[in-house]
Write a structure and sequence with these properties.
single chain; D-Maltodextrin-Binding Protein, domain 2; Arc Repressor Mutant, subunit A; 10 strands; two-stranded antiparallel sheet; 11 helices; 19% strand; eight-stranded mixed β-sheet; alpha/beta; 42% helix
Length: 326
């Protein structure tokens, strides 16, 4: 069994076609076919069912391919470790950012990344928390900027800053003269949530001391994924929103944004990597760049209460339901 053979079966699993897999591996089709046959004979197991179109792995083949991916990931981590030991700040980094943070942090961050890490090529992907965790565990991205803790034993978390939540309200929610936001029992059901953003929603429900059952009393449901849309729904007097502070830094001064009383609810924003990630020098440099680009207000020490999401009953139930539907 060779590493090259493992690469071939991974390519076949991805392409489900001998010719395309051979092309992706820069090898002839007969050569790839011969290597697959040799591997199957060596281990005594058929990895692919050739009678189906498109090609698909056998039941045991699925497990073998999964293990092959882990082996190659470990090989890559050894290569990354060598690079890290030499303190070379170069190469390609695939960086994921949660969608409730990306539109507001990346414009602040990207210029400094280019200036301070000129030899690093960044590919930035915006996704939900669940999507980024899966990408990290599979190795399709190298690191992610996201809310933590994740609760995953296969991920390493490096906190960068704490982002306060603020309330965005309309005329139905108290006097404009009020400095702090006060939540009443009568308006709890009007809290606007984002579709499929289970991590973010779990934090909001925690802040408001709500359960998902309380939200079932709503008369309208909005299948939306954008904080900017939430703002417009509030402006249309259709409810209120709780927003992360970075999402309002470019808004016009507006007395409808209200802070919470101390201890203010915050979310912990961290750089998250898999437990095989080895570019520690680069990781620390990116962490430093993120901190430096933040507005000064977010760097100030305050009386905060960190809001978690991974242990929320809502989060666990929502994720279980989404997996069941797939």
């Amino acid at each position: 069994m060779t590493l090259q053979q493992l690469k071939y079966i991974i390519a076949l699993d991805k392409e489900r076609h001998f010719a395309r897999a051979a092309e992706a591996c820069f090898v002839s089709q007969p050569g790839l076919t011969l290597q697959l046959k040799s591997l199957e004979e060596e281990i005594g197991i058929k990895i692919f069912d050739r009678s189906t179109v498109p090609l698909k792995p056998t039941l045991l083949g699925v497990s073998i391919i999964s293990k092959a991916k882990k082996v190659l990931k470990e090989i890559d981590s050894i290569r990354d470790f060598v690079i890290d030991e030499k303190n070379i700040l170069e190469g390609e980094i695939k960086l994921g950012v949660i969608s409730t943070l990306s539109p507001y942090l990346i414009p602040l961050l990207i210029k400094d990344l280019r200036t301070k890490l000129p030899k690093v090529i960044f590919t930035i992907k915006e996704d939900s928390t669940g999507g980024l965790m899966k990408n990290l565990e599979e190795g399709s991205i190298d690191m992610a900027i996201m809310a933590t803790p994740t609760g995953s034993t296969s991920l390493l978390e490096f906190p960068v800053f704490y982002e306060p939540f603020v309330a965005f309200i309309n005329k139905s929610y108290g006097s404009n003269a009020d400095i702090l936001f006060k939540l009443s029992e009568s308006n709890k059901a009007d809290l606007l949530l984002l579709q499929d953003e289970y991590c973010f929603n779990a934090q909001l429900l925690d802040i408001c001391n709500l359960t998902n059952a309380d939200k079932a009393q709503q008369k309208f449901f909005y299948n939306i994924n954008s904080i900017e849309t939430l703002k417009n729904l509030v402006r249309a007097d259709l409810g209120f929103a709780i927003l992360p502070e970075l999402s309002i830094i470019n808004d016009e001064p507006n007395n409808c944004y209200k802070s919470f009383e101390d201890p203010k609810p915050v979310r912990e924003i961290s750089l998250v990597v898999s437990d095989t990630f080895a570019k520690n020098v680069l990781l620390e440099k990116i962490r430093e760049i993120i901190w430096d680009c933040l507005p000064q207000k977010l760097k100030q020490t305050a009386n905060y209460k960190k809001i978690s999401w991974n242990d929320s009953p809502y989060f666990k139930k929502a994720v279980h339901s989404s997996l069941k539907d797939k």
